[in-house]
User: Which sequence fits this backbone?
């Protein structure tokens, strides 16, 4: 019960909170163009995250942070597939692929990925059919707009009700397409077309999202909502990210997506012990 099972027969038990470590294969934070992604460095980073307690490695080749532009499918495949292959060759860890593109989903799962993490909740061309055919777990995330422009005047009447209604509609669409509800994870999408107040309200109301019965994933690591509250640059946001991870676990969240596995692991497990007892 409460276990995600991948098409490769790997399973992820969610009776205690799990850590998803981020592996970003994007170059967008390096604007000088003199920096190339090195797969050996990426593999080192994966090994470090596994030693620190990561339960899932999330591999992505499209930046979805505010302002980011689209990536061609060939480029995304070239960034993601070799890494999925190498991580799979080295480890039996649960691998998720952070993509909205059907071709990337198909090839990543063929290369050994266990789960599809889609910030567009399977709304792109053929994504829903592809994920259903692959018979592997999916994370459905809420986003208002598209990364390039989503932070330009986000607007809601009732942010919690609207995010919930969107996720419920995507759960229904997935069920109709043949994906079992037990294979779905939901995510309110912090920072994706939301003002600071929208993000804070959604975080406070995380328990309201539980009524769908699907486990909740939260990704707030180093995001601008922390910068907006504390007025600090991205490289100083780890302690606040870890605090939010602990708070998310207290509020019943099942999966925490993070850059800092070691620190997040301790916060998550300590908060889980307080909330549920240590056994
Ligand atoms: C997320 C997430 C993700 N976030 C899931 N996948 C990103 N399931 C990528 C900022 O405000 O939360 N959940 N994949 C990264 N995207 C962002 C968005 C990064 C906003 C930074 C910000 O700073």
Assistant:
């Amino acid at each position: 019960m409460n276990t995600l099972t991948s098409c490769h027969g790997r399973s992820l038990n969610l009776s205690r909170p799990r850590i998803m470590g981020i592996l970003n294969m994007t170059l967008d934070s390096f604007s000088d163009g003199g920096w190339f992604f090195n797969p050996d460095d990426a593999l080192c980073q994966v090994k470090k995250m596994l030693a620190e307690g990561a339960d899932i490695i999330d591999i992505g080749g499209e930046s979805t942070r505010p302002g980011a532009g689209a990536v061609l499918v060939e480029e995304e495949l070239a960034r993601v597939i070799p890494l999925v292959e190498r991580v799979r060759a080295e480890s039996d860890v649960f691998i998720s692929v952070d993509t909205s593109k059907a071709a990337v989903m198909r090839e990543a799962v063929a290369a050994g990925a266990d789960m599809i993490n889609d910030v567009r909740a399977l709304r792109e061309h053929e994504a829903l059919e592809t994920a259903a055919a692959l018979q592997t777990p999916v994370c459905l995330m809420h986003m208002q707009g598209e990364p390039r422009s989503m932070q330009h005047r986000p607007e809601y009447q009732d942010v919690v009700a609207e995010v919930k209604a969107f996720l419920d509609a995507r759960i229904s669409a997935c069920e109709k397409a043949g994906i079992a509800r037990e294979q779905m994870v939901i995510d309110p999408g912090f920072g994706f077309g939301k003002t600071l107040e929208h993000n804070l309200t959604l975080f406070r109301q995380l328990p309201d999202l539980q009524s769908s019965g699907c486990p909740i994933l939260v990704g707030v690591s180093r995001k601008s909502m922390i910068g907006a509250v504390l007025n600090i640059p991205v490289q100083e946001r780890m302690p606040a990210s870890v605090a939010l991870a602990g708070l998310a676990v207290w509020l019943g969240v099942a999966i925490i997506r993070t850059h800092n596995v070691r620190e997040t692991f301790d916060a998550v497990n300590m908060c889980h012990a307080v909330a549920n007892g240590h056994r």
About this structure: The chain has nine helices and ten strands.
